[in-house]
Design a protein that fits this description.
By secondary structure, the chain is an alpha+beta fold. It is 32% helix and 24% strand.
Length: 59
């Protein structure tokens, strides 16, 4: 398993619940097409699984 994971927001959160918006902010995704690289942890993977329809995992 890699040490880091890179992901980007590819869809807007407009129309989503407050929990989804909070999860995106927790992931560091505040704007469309923003790319973030973080350490790969089980907590991060869980957050990404909740917003998988809005993000693209690049590796």
């Amino acid at each position: 398993m890699k040490d880091t994971i890179t992901y980007s927001q590819i869809k807007s959160y407009i129309g989503s619940t407050k929990a989804i918006r909070a999860t995106l902010i927790g992931l560091g995704l505040t704007k469309m097409h923003k790319t973030v690289t973080r350490k790969d942890t089980p907590e991060l993977r869980g957050m990404l699984s909740k917003v998988l329809h809005l993000v693209k995992i690049e590796g």
